[in-house]
Every structure is written in C-alpha cells, then in structure tokens.
Amino acid sequence: MKYKGVIENKLRLIESKVEEIRSWNITSINDIKKSSLIRNAVERALQVAIEIMIDIAERILALENCKPAISSAKAISKMEDLSIIKDSDKYIDMVRYRNFIVRRYEYVDINILFTIVNKKLSLFESFVDEIRKVNTI
C-alpha cells in the first residue's frame, strides 16, 4: 500500500532531527557531560524522532485497517507482522528509551545517551528507508 504525504513529511522530520544531532559533533561523552544545553537538546531531539516513529507506525496500522496497538512497542511490532519493517526489536529498544526519558526524566544515563548518538542514529535512517521502500511499491 502506498501511504500519503503525511508519512513522508514525518520521515523528513526524523531525518532533520538526526541531521541536527549529528551537526552538534558530539565526539566524546564529555561533550554531553559538560553542557546541560547539549544534553537537553539531544534528549529532546531523540524523543521527538522516536515519537515520530511511533506516530508513523500508528498511522500505517490505521491505513492497513488494523486494530490500534495497546502500546507503542506493539505498534512497531505489528509493522513487522505486516512486513513493513524487518526487525522491530531494534526499533522497540528506541521506544523503550523514549519511555525512559519521558517517565524517568530526573535521571537519564549519559552513557546511554552518548551510545545512541554515536552508534544508534543509523537506526532512524534504517526505519526511514524501510518505510520509504514500502511506500514506493
């Protein structure tokens, strides 16, 4: 099924958030430790990018006439069941991270934040690519 322009706009916003994070050139954990501004900006940009992933999943499920998922993680998982994405687990880990920063905001582990920035941003790009691949069929 080809999805509407709203989803493409959301995909572009994910790309924009990832590009924004990369532009901050965070190369060491000290870049995050020494600046609450950078730490807060990264947390927020990641939260928004993950929220968009969830929005896209929920929108696609609605377009596919699926029942609403009982959780954000289940929405992502259902997309794998529909063969829209290949490995939902890696995206579900991002949803769990979002849940953590939203609910346990008083303590966000800087090591995890640094790991995401330096090793996991490509997951957003993979998600975008997988959705676009289905969107062009």
Description of the structure:
The protein is mostly helical. The protein has one domain: Four Helix Bundle (Hemerythrin (Met), subunit A), CATH 1.20.120. Helix content is 76%, strand content 0%. The protein has 6 helices and no strands. The longest helix is centred in the middle third of the chain and has 28 residues.
CATH topology: Four Helix Bundle (Hemerythrin (Met), subunit A)
Report the CATH architecture: Up-down Bundle
**Proportion of strand residues:** under 5%
The radius of gyration computed from the alpha-carbon positions, rounded to a whole number of angstroms, is 15 Å
Tell me the number of structural domains. Answer: 1
Provide the succession of SSEs: HHHHHH
Q: Layout of helices and strands, plus pairs?
A:
Blueprint: H1 5-23, H2 29-33, H3 36-63, H4 72-81, H5 88-103, H6 110-135
Helix pairs in contact: 1-3, 1-6, 3-4, 3-5, 3-6, 4-5
Q: Which tags fit this structure?
A:
76% helix, 137 residues, single chain, globular, 0% strand, 6 helices, Four Helix Bundle (Hemerythrin (Met), subunit A), mainly alpha
Entry summary:
The protein is mainly alpha-helical and 137 residues long. It contains six helices and no strands.
